[in-house]
């Protein structure tokens, strides 16, 4: 599964689509064992009929089971919030009623006899699923858990498609069909869906039959003959355009709303290449009979890896102009696909071990990036994920990666399981070497195919592949918490030609065992020293030919740690030009950014504006202090060239933003030229540049551009309208916010409130202020509404100063509400 985020990232908007939430105070909870396997699911045959008016599903389930290890005379099935109409034993087409009781969560069935381990039997259940009557508890990762969702079922919202879709993980599929809703079960399935004939249906596996019922409905039958976990069963029904491709003879399709058809190939077109890449990396060909991705409205998570039929939320949609800047969903497309090995083919045995699904899927984004966009691309992806763990979640330092003491299963869907877990795999790959690590993944997959796995099985596979004991690594990273805080100091002794590197682990608590490289650059040549740090403070001494130009601790830049490095500025400058990695250069850019009066640092920063990797060009340009005359004169020729010619529109935009910070009217013609770009980012930068020079002209442009504006451009327009005081622009905000995904709303809301703070019209204020509050309330589910308090306070203060007591009282109420 892929979560969503309301937090913005360090470098790019690519990462605004994650969601990470403050943790709630933890109560000590009991050990969460894997679910006992009393019976095995074998096969699940469903016939379901959708009732859009009632938002019900009428189902008939024929479930084949067998006792797992011991003779059994009773069976419990998960069946949440249903109305149960019949429970019977099914044999030779005959229904024999079975005694049962039902407590609205589970069916307790008395079987007709004692069945022996491995002895198959079939139960039949007729039921009505009523998802809206079931009181579900959502979570940070999944905003609801009712399993089955009817979107706009009565077509009340004219512009919105009518859809039905499901979301199972963690244990919500038992709202729409009875099952043993645990990740350590696997079943084959046959699902017959009766729905309005005008719609397309989708489920797991291949379509075996379509029958027109002559009453406006059609019954589609989907069959999946490879076993998979109940939480991965899915169904989607709606008016979808289907784009079909092939990979090694298998269907690869993308289901989108018809209006999105022109962009579908550009959006998902890397999928076959991803399938080839992961198949060859893992030594296991994509193991399922097809791969479909469907985009649905109002999805309750980011994306979900249902076997052969991944669901993405509608924030996936990007038009060709957005895709010109970047495909912000590429990592998620890779992530869900990779789950088809780590998650679907081998499934976590328990939610406590979710790392074997999600850490791998998270890391697969780095692997894909590295393959597709080179070493810098992979390192960038890896770095961003590391920052999300290190920056956003101090409370996560106390959580084990494998966690048996969780409160809710959904709690595992956090930065520890995803971002930290992915970085732990990155360290493991570095320690073992890429080929051995890949071999370890291959062994884990082949040894546990169609079964379940836990972290210990990953350890055993990696140990088998490498011939190394890995207990220390797994104890430290999987069954322990936290990360090291490293303080690095250096001393050079000319007399003895000795370089001393003094490293301290300053975190409280445990000591980490860390293998890493120290690269020492002497006379322009790099010497690598592989070292182990096993104590809280370690001193490493190297006798060298001459004083080194650079000592680069963690030469492969793999350690998941908070680092304080006491290198000199000169060393960082040297590092930029001589050390090869993305992070070597980024660290240097970050240091130089704080020392732009220094000539060497400044020259390095300007050189970095031309770095071979556009993310670093962007980082360097973003950091330029254009108020310093010496920076301006050194950087402007470079920036002007980039603004016009860079192959990356994001780099062009960064150059324009830097030029715009001069507020120099000499560049007005450049901005007016670039405002015609196809890239929203470039247009936004140009518009901001114009606004800094000539506000009325910017307002005029904003009026022309607002019809086709998205992302950064919408935000730029929001900023300009917000400052304009022109209340006729309030409609722009309400319209934009309506169709906007929550992660993109906050700057729009900021502009909205700024503009509202300037109106004295009571009716306008009330209507739009209430509307703004509706959007702010959406942040409550992520406990992120507090970020708007300063803005609301600003509205209040301005209203008070303007002697508008009714409006100021409204704002005060809002401040109070959002402060809680
Ligand atoms: Zn996932």
From TrEMBL:
Annotated ranges, domain Aminopeptidase N-like N-terminal: 44-232
Cofactor requirement: Zn(2+)
Coiled coil regions, renumbered to chain: none
Enzyme Commission code(s) on record: 3.4.11.2
Domain of life: Bacteria
Reaction(s) the record says it catalyses: Release of an N-terminal amino acid, Xaa-|-Yaa- from a peptide, amide or arylamide. Xaa is preferably Ala, but may be most amino acids including Pro (slow action). When a terminal hydrophobic residue is followed by a prolyl residue, the two may be released as an intact Xaa-Pro dipeptide
Annotated GO CC locations: cytoplasm; extracellular space; membrane
Matches recorded under InterPro entries: Aminopeptidase_N-like_N, Aminopeptidase_N-like_N_sf, ARM-like, ARM-type_fold, Peptidase_M1, Peptidase_M1_aminopeptidases, Peptidase_M1_dom, Peptidase_M4/M1_CTD_sf
UniProt KW keywords: Aminopeptidase, Hydrolase, Metal-binding, Metalloprotease, Protease, Zinc
Keyword Cytoplasm: no
GO MF annotation, one: peptide binding
GO biological process, one term: peptide catabolic process
rRNA-binding keyword on record: no
Pfam families for this protein: HEAT_2, Peptidase_M1, Peptidase_M1_N
Residue span(s) of domain Peptidase M1 membrane alanine aminopeptidase: 270-477
Assigned protein family: Belongs to the peptidase M1 family.
Protein name: Aminopeptidase N
Upper classification of the organism: Bacteria, Pseudomonadati, Bacteroidota, Chitinophagia, Chitinophagales
